[in-house]
Specification:
Layout: E1 2-4, E2 13-15, E3 20-24, H1 39-52, H2 59-63, H3 71-75, E4 80-84, H4 96-105, E5 109-110, H5 113-121, H6 147-152, E6 168-169, E7 172-173, E8 185-187, E9 193-195, E10 202-204, E11 212-213, E12 228-229, E13 241-242, E14 245-247
Parallel strand pairs: 10-13
Antiparallel strand pairs: 1-2, 2-14, 3-4, 5-14, 6-7, 8-9, 10-11, 11-12
Length: about 250
């Protein structure tokens, strides 16, 4: 985690350097990042989309297989927890409730919106992790393709398809591994940095009505660290919704 000093009314806190991936708390086995973390829902979506993928999109899209759902996720319910690791696919398909629970099971919590924005802006408090003006390609956002348009020929449909975050733009995956976009770094000095706070996945923050921030890879937003969506309740989830966790030094 990266330590963020107190500023104004905000107390000092720590925040994960990378977007969360989920593991089974008991065994530390990684959960698939392409399905929600609950066994009944994950298996239902796997069964549903194994059929529906053959009926939507063009011929190439229909041939694209589903990502495997690990056997243990099919066999038993797990206590899932968030971990912050570089070089892994971050977990999408998280509701606000799941995001909160994943952080709690890791001994952490959801970030407050004000904390998240402060962390994203870095030590120099810039609008974007990399500077004061938008630069295309510095963070993984505003991509030319939308995965639902690629697979379903309609960007508004099929947002629970487990294949969406596997779509590539040429050889470049739309959803990149954590920390892969090295220019998208919020600088906190002394080799402390936060990655992908603008783009890659939207990230849930602590808000009773539901709020996720930062923008995801196909969202056409150029407001950087101020990007926020409040249109969905905490129970909502789709392929683009993930999380990173915070921690108060005093607990």
């Amino acid at each position: 985690m990266v330590s963020i000093p107190a500023r104004g009314a905000l107390k000092a806190f720590c925040i994960d350097a990378y977007e969360a991936s989920l593991v089974d708390k008991e065994t530390q086995a990684p959960l698939s990042p392409y399905y929600p973390p609950h066994r009944p829902l994950a298996t239902k979506l796997a069964e549903r989309w194994e059929q529906e993928r053959k009926e939507v999109g063009d011929a190439k899209a229909r041939e694209m297989p589903l990502p495997p759902l690990p056997g243990f996720q099919r066999a038993r319910d797990v206590t899932f927890m968030a971990v912050s690791r570089p070089g892994v696919v971050p977990s999408g398909y998280l509701s606000g409730h799941d995001a909160e629970l994943a952080c709690k099971n890791a001994g952490k919590r959801l970030c407050k919106h004000e904390e998240w924005v402060l962390a994203c802006q870095g030590k120099q408090q810039r609008q974007f992790p990399y500077g004061d003006e938008y630069k295309r390609g510095e963070c993984n956002i505003c991509r030319w393709q939308h995965p639902a348009a690629v697979l379903h020929e309609d960007a508004s449909k099929g947002h629970l398809d487990p294949r969406l975050n596997l779509v590539k733009e040429g050889k470049d995956p739309l959803l990149r591994p954590t920390g892969a976009t090295r220019t998208c770094r919020s600088d906190w000095g002394e080799d402390q940095g936060l990655y992908d706070m603008n783009g890659n996945l939207d990230e849930w923050v602590d808000d009773e009505k539901g709020k996720f921030v930062g923008g995801f890879y196909a969202r056409n937003r150029k407001d950087g660290c101020k990007a926020a969506i409040t249109a969905h309740p905490k129970g909502y989830f789709d392929y683009s919704t993930g999380v990173r966790c915070c921690l108060s030094p005093d607990g």
